[in-house]
Each structure stands twice: as structure tokens, then as C-alpha cells.
Amino acid sequence: MGLAHCPLCIGLALLSLVRGCANAVQLWQLLVPAPSVSLGLQGT
Fold this sequence. Notes:
about 75% helix
């Protein structure tokens, strides 16, 4: 049947996917400096 056999499993899968994406975005923001700040400083 797979993951779609019960709404609870679907909800848990979506929740973990959202949390994983949020963690990846936070990690990306920590590792890569914000380009908008550097562009703003160069423009002035």
C-alpha cells in the first residue's frame, strides 16, 4: 500500500518534510552570506 494507507502517516510524512526543508534553509542561510546585503553596500 505504501505511505498513503492512513491519514496519520501522510500527516507525519508532510510534517517531517516541512521540518527538513526548514532546517535545510536555516543551514543554507548560516553557510552562505546574504547577497542582498553585499549588493546594497556596493550600490552606495
